[in-house]
Amino acid sequence: MLFNSYTFIFVFLPLTLLVFHSLRYLKRGRSAIFSLIVASFVFYGWWNPQYILLLVGLMASDCVIAQQIIRARQQNKRSAKFWLIIGLVINLGALGYYKYANFFVDNLNALMDWEILIGTVVLPIGISFFTFQKIAFLTDLYHGKVSRFSILNYSLFVTFFPQLIAGPIVHHSEVMPQFDKLERIEQKMVALGVTFFSIGLAKKVLIADTAARYASPHFNAAFGGETLDFVTAWGAAFAYTAQIYYDFSAYSDMAIGIALLFGIRLPINFDSPYKSRNIMDFWRRWHITLSRFLRDYLYIPLGGNQKGQGRRFINLIITMVLGGIWHGAGWTFLIWGTLHGLYLVINHAWHGIVRRLSLEPLRTNKVFTAFGWLITFLAVVVAWVFFRATSLDSAMSILASMTGQNGFGTPSLAAFLVPAIFLSGAVILPNTQQITNYIPPAGTSDRHLARPIPEALRWKLSSQWAVYVGVLFALSLMYMTQVSEFIYFQF
Which residues are catalytic? Predict the structure, then answer.
């Protein structure tokens, strides 16, 4: 089921809200949480009911393992680590099989000239996201960072439908404490939820889907063997750069909005990443919850920056390569992750040179700052070509065209103007949390980076803002003639 569908907006969401708030009004808090869990399973099973069994099976095994870890820690037994390893093996094993089995076998057959046949393994939707959430929970439970364990709360933590399919990747410390405080939900929180959802829906329907109409035909043509010219290739790259930002930030906004309707605050996942002045800043702003997971549960355990500069660079590349592969089983995703790993290495090395040569004043120089933004933005655009391309050959073909190897071509006003307008909005305008002054949940470890905006531009609970939001919502519904999946559904 998609957030941008009439079934979800006019049937599923209203019914779920009605049942939840009726139970909450009757002081049946635990029953209200249970109703959300049931609704989340319906939401997940709408795509393919058989994968509900997989989700339930993984959750059941996690609950058993969690109880064993708690028991072992209470008795000071070393078996706690054994049970953690079992939990990691089960979760990563499921992710590995469903996401990478076909890729591994196909490449093994090509390399060894074998003919191993395993059939097509269908990727369960959302498995990459809820697997990381469950791994973080078990790891923190092992390290004593989880105060108590409730099967009901844990079930909602894993299945909560607003963020089940495509994030944000929620940390248990951010949402579990909220599950016990759902007795009273303020009117302002509901109004804020509607606002977030409406802005997200507009981003998806009016902007992301429009940008896709400029990006997809050219990327598909390159995959089909057609050679693009310089102008067309850059236009396609810029269009996809706009599409993926608005598509994924739209889902994150809608997830936050829906969660607010149930009295739950989710963490911020985007903080105007295309405003970043360097690639380190970009990864503090893009897919914030994934960056946090990779930092806390991969980069730091590898040693982080505590074992010398060389080891730090290796850890950065390993982290970003695995982050790239997490997005998809393909060489294009591996290269995308490797590129960003190299970008980070270069960025850290440059900062080291600046410190050694006492060039810190350059960081506040406007020309230097603008140049840093331009280099960062173009580096991100180039990497997006690999992320979007369906094959290495098509990615290399587009990049060759972007370097002018296949002719300049005739400029198309619409092909450049539309993506340019969309990207300008992402670079210049305030983001949703700035407009609404959204406060992320307690327990969020990453501070809100974006600066406050003038009071006159902020959202207020008023009839005037209600009209603005209502018009935006109605306009989005009018243009929602064809329901399209979110990009991150495939991950």
Answer: 327
